[in-house]
Amino acid sequence: MKIVNNQSFNIQKRNAQIYNKHLDSGFSITKESAMDSIKHINDCIENPTIGLIARKQSRTHKLPSFCYEQNYRDLMAFDSMNVAVGVFENKFDNLYPRSGKARKYLINSNSIMLDSVNHIKKTFSRQIFKFLGKICK
To answer: How far apart are CA 78 and CA 62, in angstroms?
Structure first.
């Protein structure tokens, strides 16, 4: 397991914030914003779990979700972004063939945070996830 130093972590957080600012913006996606976003994808390729946690934590909801989705489609229209995302997805799937879905679930449910410690949430979806984990061993 690779240990991430604090400076590297801060750079990853900043790149994730820039990535999310481009997606949650009223402005159109440009080539420069695509290049900024590729920096975050490269961070995710380097440290997949930390990159995804940083992305989730820095996500803003200033505009309606259809603006975010449209900006994401515009961003993915750039070939360089498509290639980077493909490389990331392949690496994630190869690194975590069995635990990838669990990692994404924990990240999306805010069960893992980078800067703080959260109490365990006793939700119904968590109970189902634990039950399915026991069955699928």
So the answer is: 24
| Residue 120 pLDDT > 90 | no
Taking the CA of residue 29 as centre, how many other CA atoms within 13 Å lie in the half-sphere pointing to its CB? 25
Give the span between the Cα atoms of 37 and 84, in whole angstroms: 10
What is this structure's pTM? 0.80
Which two structure tokens, joined as six digits, stand for 42? 């490269």
Reported as a single tens digit per residue, the pLDDT across 60-105 is 888 888 888 999 999 999 999 999 999 999 999 999 998 898 889 8
Distance (Å, whole) CA 5 – CA 113: 16
Distance CA 126, CA 115 (A): 22
Distance between CA atoms of 22 and 89, rounded to whole angstroms?
21
Which residues lie closer than 8 Å to 58 by C-beta, 6 or more apart?
A: 13, 16, 17, 19, 20
